[in-house]
Amino acid sequence: MKIPFARIGRIALRILIGILLFFFFVIYIVIPLGAPWLIRSRGSKILSHPVKVRSVWVNPFLLRLSVDKFEILTPDKRGTLTGFDKFWVDFSFLGLCKREYRIESIGLAGLVVNVELLPGNKINLMDLLPASGDAAAAEEKPAISKQEGQAPREKAISAPALPNIRIDSIELTGGTVTFTDRTLTPQFSSALNDLTLTISGISSKPEDTATAVFSVKIDDKGVINAEAEFKPFVQPIELNSTFSMDGYHLAVLTPYAGKYAGHGVKSGRMGLKMDYKISDNKLNARHKLLIQNFDFGEKVESKDALNLPFGLAIALLEDPQGRISISLPVKGDMSDPQFEYWHLVGQVVTNFFMKLVTSPFLSLLSMTGVESGVEEMSSVSFEPGKAELTDKTKEKLTLLLQVIKERPKLFLEINGSYDPKTDWTAIKTEAYTTEFAGRQKESSRSDWEIIKDIYVLHFGILDFWKLAKKFTAGKQIDELAMQQEMKRLIIERGKEDNAALELLADQRARAVYDFIISGGFDSSRVKVGAVRQTQETMGRIPLEFTITVFEAR
Known about the structure:
Low-confidence stretches: 133-157
Strand content: 25-35%
Number of domains: 2
């Protein structure tokens, strides 16, 4: 029987044409019309928010998928939670021929994200996550399996080798992210505009290095740039990155400054640079902060304001050009089970500011590069009973004067001091020595007779005879021993004269004040304060300084 090849060919051709027509019908009619409807329907149900999408296209010849104008709306449909203008993925057909899963590009244009912090510290985008009940149900599965007798694995199964995957580029362009904090009064709002991100060279090969470049405008007044090199499929992670922010206007932060510092922000611009390197599980990071022309604004009543000397910290840090420069290195071992990045950074920042406000003189001298003697710069010392400045004290005051001059917002208060016991003993000793020397010049009498006259003058003849009995053996008085005892009693007896001690303390403060003013220091930024009682240290009397914020009179 003759085989009708022509007929079979016509049937096969019709079948092939039918398949192609069905294929084109699905690709160009069903998917463009059905996919948007499915995304809107299922997306709205899963996310519990209205979902919109304009179109979905699939190009089977170019292996390209694209989605246009996707949005997740607020429940009242008046605003957008998140969305984008266009998303696309381009696969490589030739890569499949080489057993390589290669994506030539992944792109996202016109990204929009609106984040709000609501009362109760709730973030609006959290509504898009699955309900907690779903997570709890998922967590119950291992427990059920265990009840069914499945023993836990004792040995970890090594993960299979990754397939040959490569993503040539990931691009995000024209993105906008806004953040609004509705827990503050007034509300805080900030926007990131013209967000651009490019990631290239992602590969499952451990030796390949990927690069990322990021830039964005913040509140249209600042610019953020970042670059990074990393190996995405290497453990432990390897990373080398830089981050910089320039020209950020701090007045935007007034709501937060008012809440936590009790003052708004009148002016100031901030720049920040961070360098991060992670290698062999070791973190090595540097943070450099530069703030220029910062000034607090009006006082704000806030129950959450922290009782911290923010003004003093600014005054200590700011140089004559109105710049605040801070450098904070951070190092850590990421293999340590106790390692926590934010805890580590918080500890470094806390230690820096605690040292700044609790040891202001130490911080000042450290910032100016002075390394020797910094622990003693908060005070100068005097000899007991004296108010004269020694050469060493003058050198210290000269250095202190130089440091304070470089911080124009600092005000120096000099608090004269005295030790009631040590200073009074020194005053009485000097008075006795002066009186004894004067009597020696006026007469040729012996030291014994002179000391006897002084003692009788202070305590009376009866007291003298009582004391003499203690130093008499038979009919002989031990004049040398009694002479030393009379001298001791003359100096040590009697209540301290507070007026004389306070006068000494004031004289010490005046001596320091006069030296500082003679060095060209602004007299409106220094004053003599109230005198204080203190305690001698290593045989000398310390006089301390108080640093506060300078307010123009």
